[in-house]
């Protein structure tokens, strides 16, 4: 498997498509997840107005009736089955209404001739419509992937749980194009590889779990979520889906343009199948932040206790990589510290801090997640070494100044994380 991992990593491309597409509404309406972009909604008239999606029903018999009913029939089905609001117990329901899951806007210089367009509800379609351009200009052979990061917009009925569910959010997606018949092999590959990547961040293996979908979207033949234990429970962090050839075939059909891949080995043309990995950047940030925040009690050498707030952000993700701390503001220590700062600042985001006692400065950088502190003391002037303090363990090592760049780079670089995954 190592060889195949090396191959796939070298075959991931990146693109930046527009937030709304020049193909107007057609690209958006092809969205597999959104369909026509509408769903049905009703509320219970009670002290708490709770909104419900009417197709969110576990009873298959009732669900079939709901899916095939118009808005008037939907209301009657609710009344016939005497369904009550589980929050308030009310049976007094509003009329059923259509709810648009996509944001609509107008494109045009004057309102009379403006076209209706929609902000994209996912970033994937920008990849699909550019797939053939990337494949031909990059001379890519299957399997290969296209990845991107960008904004997506969904008119959520209830945006909640801090930044977990928002109407405007950042998505990181990769669409991996494979030969038909090989999609399940690659689906399992990316499912396991993505889980390994998350666990390699060190937030805790027990905080992750798979949730395999029993109910699949019409475009998928396999789907699973990587769930993370947020403060409010296990919730979806990333989705891995085998989307078959639904998206590319739909674009080919509606555009009338062939977007098939010619396989030189088999001498045949076909529409590739797609395996997708999709993760919310905002959710990833929330996962890291909630797992990293720790309040702990420390036992000192004299038997007394102290407390500290520490943000255990993985060193690779920490915004500040190292703090440069002269022990005192005299005796030439600030000048030496500035010299070290000037050597490191071009490769790492470092902070210089000389205010307050060294203990207070350690606590300050623990609280913002700085993984390493470099203390310059009088011994530094004698033997050109500094004290390297580790945030998580508070362990201290003496290291030479001329090796600092190499040492810090090894500790904070993504190379180490990727080597652990055998990806490079």
User: Could you describe the largest sheet, including whether it forms a barrel?
Assistant: 7 strands, mixed
**Structural class of the helices, strands and pairings?**
alpha+beta
Portion of residues in beta strands equals: 25-35%
Number of DSSP E strands: 21
Can you describe this structure in just a few lines?
By secondary structure, the protein is an alpha+beta fold. It has 13 helices and 21 strands.
Structure description:
The longest helix has 18 residues, at 183-200. This protein has a seven-stranded mixed sheet, with helices on both faces. It has a five-stranded mixed sheet with strand order 18-17-19-20-21, sandwiched between helices. By secondary structure, it is α+β, with helices and mostly antiparallel strands. It is globular and about 80 Å long. It is built from 13 helices and 21 strands. It has three domains: 2-23 and 106-289, BirA Bifunctional Protein, domain 2 (2-Layer Sandwich), CATH 3.30.930; 38-99, Herpes Virus-1 (2-Layer Sandwich); 301-420, Anticodon-binding domain (Rossmann fold, 3-Layer(aba) Sandwich). Residues 1-9 and 21-57 have low confidence and may be disordered. 31% of the residues lie in helices and 29% in strands.
Key phrases:
3 domains, 424 residues, alpha+beta, five-stranded mixed beta sheet, Rossmann fold, 29% strand, 21 strands, 31% helix, BirA Bifunctional Protein, domain 2, disordered N terminus
Secondary-structure blueprint:
Elements (H helix, E strand, L loop, with lengths): L1 H8 L2 E3 L10 H5 L8 E6 L7 E3 L6 H8 L3 H10 L16 E4 L3 E4 L7 E4 L5 H14 L6 E10 L14 E11 L4 H18 L7 E5 L9 E9 L2 E12 L1 H10 L5 E3 L4 E3 L2 E8 H12 E7 L5 E7 L10 E5 L6 H12 L5 E3 L5 H11 L3 E5 L1 H6 L1 E6 L5 E5 L3 H9 L1 H7 L4
Parallel strand pairs: 1-7, 17-18, 17-19
Antiparallel strand pairs: 2-3, 2-4, 5-6, 7-8, 8-14, 9-10, 10-11, 11-14, 12-13, 15-16, 19-20, 20-21
């Amino acid at each position: 498997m190592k060889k195949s991992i090396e191959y796939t990593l070298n075959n991931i491309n990146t693109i930046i498509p527009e937030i709304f597409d020049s193909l107007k509404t057609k690209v958006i309406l092809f969205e597999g997840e959104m369909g026509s972009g509408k769903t049905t909604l009703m509320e219970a008239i009670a002290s708490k107005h709770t909104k419900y999606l009417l197709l969110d029903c576990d009873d298959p018999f009732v669900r079939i009736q709901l899916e095939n009913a118009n808005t008037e029939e939907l209301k009657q089905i609710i009344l016939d089955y005497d369904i009550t609001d589980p929050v308030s117990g009310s049976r007094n329901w509003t009329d059923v209404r259509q709810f648009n899951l996509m944001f609509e806007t107008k494109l045009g210089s004057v309102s009379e001739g403006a076209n209706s367009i929609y902000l994209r509800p996912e970033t994937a379609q920008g990849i699909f419509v550019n797939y053939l351009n990337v494949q031909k200009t990059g001379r890519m052979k299957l399997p290969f992937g296209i990845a991107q990061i960008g904004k997506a917009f969904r008119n959520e009925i209830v945006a909640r749980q801090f930044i977990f569910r928002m109407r405007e959010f950042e998505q990181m997606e990769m669409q991996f194009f494979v030969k038909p018949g090989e999609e399940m092999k690659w689906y399992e590959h990316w499912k396991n590889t993505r889980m390994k990547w998350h666990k390699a961040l060190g937030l805790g293996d027990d905080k992750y779990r798979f949730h395999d979908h029993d109910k699949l979207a019409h475009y998928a033949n396999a789907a699973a979520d990587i769930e993370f234990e947020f403060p409010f429970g296990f919730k979806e962090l990333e989705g891995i889906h085998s989307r078959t050839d639904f998206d590319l075939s739909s674009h080919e059909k509606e555009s009338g343009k062939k977007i098939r891949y010619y396989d030189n080995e088999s001498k045949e043309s076909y529409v590739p199948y797609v395996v997708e990995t999709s993760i919310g950047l905002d959710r990833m940030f929330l996962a890291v932040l909630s797992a990293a925040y720790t309040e702990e009690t420390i036992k000192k050498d004299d038997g007394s206790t102290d407390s500290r707030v520490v943000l255990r952000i993985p060193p690779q993700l920490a915004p500040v990589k190292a703090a440069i701390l002269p022990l005192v503001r005299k005796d030439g220590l600030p000048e030496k510290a500035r010299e070290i700062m000037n050597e490191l600042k071009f490769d790492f985001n470092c902070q210089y801090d000389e205010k307050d006692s060294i203990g207070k400065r350690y606590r300050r950088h623990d609280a913002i997640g700085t993984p390493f502190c470099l203390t310059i003391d009088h011994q530094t002037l004698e033997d050109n070494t500094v004290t390297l303090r580790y945030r998580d363990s508070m362990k201290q090592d003496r290291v030479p100044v001329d090796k600092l760049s190499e040492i810090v780079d090894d500790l904070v670089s993504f190379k180490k994380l990727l080597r652990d995954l055998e990806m490079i």
